[in-house]
Each structure stands twice: as C-alpha cells, then as structure tokens.
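Class, discuss our next protein.
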Amino acid sequence: MLRYISIFFISILFVSCAEFENGVQETDPKPVVEGYLIPGVQVTIRIHKEIPYTADSTANKEVPIDGLAIKLTGPNSSVTLISKGSGMYQAPADFAVKVGGVYSLNFDYHGKAISAITKIPSKPVQYAADKTIISRQAVNLTPGFNNGTRPGGFGGSENSITLTWSNPDNDYFISVVENLEVNPVEIIKFPVDTTRVRPNIRFRNEPIQGTVAEIRSQSFQYFGHHRIVLFKLNPDYVALYQRNGNTTQNISTPPTTINNGLGIFTGVNADTLFVRVIPE
C-alpha cells in the first residue's frame, strides 16, 4: 500500500519554478517538500530544490536535498527524520500517525526556518460500491481480426461502477483505481510495436466534495482484479491538484502551506474496495 500511495501522490506534484523579482531570477531556490501523513504508514518525506524556469526548461533536473536535520512533531512525541539519500527522509517505524492528530515539520535551510503543519483526517465512512464485477468486450486490433474497429466496453452507465460514501462535513475526496495483476492483460490488443507505451495501470477521478463518484467501464484498460481507493483529503492538497492540473508549464507561484518553502505537507486517509473486470 505504501508503494502505491507514494507513486500516486508524487505523480501529481508540480515541478516548481523559481520566482522572479523585478525580472531577475531568485538566486537561492526554495526547498520543495513532498510529504503525506497516513495512519498506519511509516512517514516518508521527499525534499528537492526548486527548479528555476528557463527558456530551455527541459534541461532542468530535480536536485535532491540531503543531510537536513528535520524535526517531525506529533501529539505525543518528536523525532528527527533519518536521511535515506536521494532527498528521502524517514521517521522511525514506531512514530505513530493518528486520526485527528496535529503534526508539524521543521528544519533550517540556508538560514531560513522552514515549517509546515497538518491535521490527519478521519477514514472515509460508509464507503461502498454497487458492483464487484463489471465486463468489457475484448478488442483485437492486430491484422486479420475483423472486430478491430469496434470499441470495447462502451456499454453505458449500466456497466459503470457507482461509489458512495458519507460526507456530512462537505470534505474533499478522490478515488484512485489500480490494477493488481502481476501480468495484466490489456482489454484492447494492439499490433506488435516495441515503441508503444502500455496504458497506465492506475487512473483517478477529480477531487470532489460530494458523496457519489462514477467509474465508467471504458476507463479500465486491463482485465483482472483492481482496487479502488477512496482518499479523504485536506483542502491544501486539492488546491495544489487544481493548480497543477495536467501541466508543469505554468510558472506562476503554486499554492503551498510550507512556510519559506514550496510543496505540500498534508494528512490523508483512505479506504479500499475491490472490483474485477472480466471479458464479455
């Protein structure tokens, strides 16, 4: 679960861009923090340098920041995170992240005090799905198959999954789907092409404040078992998600709750359901 959560959250984080002061690029990039506190999961924080925007922005690479003395404080204890290299820092395994707890992060970087604070939300309540099995038509686009032009799985709402949960406080939620098969079988079989990139085994809906989300059958790219994780979010994550969107080209200052830095330090919580996609 930790591997999955880490991949999901890091994948949507912005590549930050150094600010400009009177047309002059800031010479002391800020630290960018990526930290998600999840009950039952060992705390891992990632920190790298702010990437300056240039005409050739593709030449810029993330530079991890190692060797920092990072203090993590919770309701009952404080710990110094262990630097694991490549900008990764980890709390001791016995440092507990608890629902409702307030946690703070503090460290010094180039003479500035960097800090952030977050609260851990409760787990989603009454999370349910109206189906545990859905079907999609297998499609073969390889030469010699006459159904190659027919899209599979566009059966309409009757073949979609409806997720529901309780949300009396109008909190934010996002649902994420991941295929669990060791060797997942694609629903649409394409002609052999060694340069073709296979579809992602994960996809997600947009953050919402409602109580219902629909996952359409055509969103699934693979047959087999999937997990559908419903994350309960703090507003700071949603602000960054909405600002980031699907691009890293916007050079305006991104929203952040990191004092004297950039990025995100936030609590999340989740519950999981499972569904199987079978051929029609």
Observations:
- The chain is about 5% helix and 40% strand.
